[in-house]
Amino acid sequence: MSDSENDSEIYFSVKFLGRVEVTCPVGMEILMEAAAALQKEKKKKNKVHLFLSRRSIDILEFKTKFMKYSCTLSSVSFCAVHQIQSKLFGFMAKHPALDSHHCYVFQSTKFSHLLVSVMCDAVKASRRSDSVRGSRDLVVEALRHKNKLLQRENAELRNKLQGKAGIDSSEEEMDNSETDQPTSHVRFNSGRDATSLQRNF
């Protein structure tokens, strides 16, 4: 996961199962059928960069950075995590030139729920941008919310570790008072990924 310097574009490295034309532009059942059809083809899952910006969702080849697909946020009609296989997620979007819709399916071990949440916020922000000028970019806001959750959890873990370190250091001070040796202070830092956010659009 990466955040760009201008706070308006982020990207995730995920595996791309492919895209398939669908008869209906919304619905969990349609998404699951599309995923099943792509999995049945047994094609190699290509690693891609999934870029999210204020205007579009872009799918780029991981190594070459070649643009495979680009979907404007206004064309996205549905986004969700697979109901059974939580590592799979996808979105549906209208073809830019034809009267048809495609479902794009991806696989991510850690970020499927977070990506769906971010894409939902991005789509909602794009639909409100005409009427709400100067509003904060909700794509970035969703990531900041994720960061707050991680910071809160990190702080709790740090407090627990420092509490344990306090017990250890008090015992060490007692030992050092007997030997007149200076005490050492250790700062503990720890962090781990929190549970991914989940929200269907």
Automatic annotation (TrEMBL):
Residues 160-201 are annotated as: Disordered. Residues 169-178 have a biased composition (Acidic residues). Residues 179-201 have a biased composition (Polar residues). Residues 12-110 form the PID domain. SMART domains: PTB. It comes from the Eukaryota. This is PID domain-containing protein. It comes from Tachysurus vachellii.
